[in-house]
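From the methods appendix. Each design record in this collection lists the tokenized structure first, followed by the designed amino acid sequence. Records were kept in a plain field format so they could be parsed without special tools. The example shown here is representative of the layout used throughout.

RECORD:
FOLD TOKENS (108 positions):
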């Protein structure tokens, strides 16, 4: 047999390039498919079935709660003092009225 001519060499190289091109196209298609699957997974994250814990309170919220408790405590203290004073005044009024009633009864 004789040595291949440059035309035969070019034809063999063209066939080989066509096969390589098909392999490269398949590889590129596989890469695109993997990218699409990854993008779909990132777009729809896995939804957990358990409840997520509530976010913790900040320092400002805790200061607000503490101030509300202090103001409420002072309000309750003043209300207790008011009830004590009211009870004392009521007792004095009842004693005075009772004494006046006795005096009225003695005069008759």
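DESIGN:
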């Amino acid at each position: 047999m004789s040595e291949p001519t440059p035309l035969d060499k070019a034809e063999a190289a063209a066939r080989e390039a066509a096969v390589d091109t098909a392999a490269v196209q398949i590889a590129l298609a596989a890469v695109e498919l993997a990218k699409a699957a990854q993008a779909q997974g990132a777009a729809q994250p896995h939804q957990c079935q358990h409840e997520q814990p509530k976010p913790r309170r900040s320092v400002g919220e805790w200061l607000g709660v503490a101030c509300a408790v202090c103001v409420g405590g002072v309000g309750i203290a003043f209300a207790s003092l008011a009830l004590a004073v009211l009870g004392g005044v009521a007792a004095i009024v009842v004693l005075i009225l009772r004494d006046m009633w006795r005096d009225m009864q003695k005069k008759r």
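APPENDIX NOTE: The chain has a mean pLDDT of 83.
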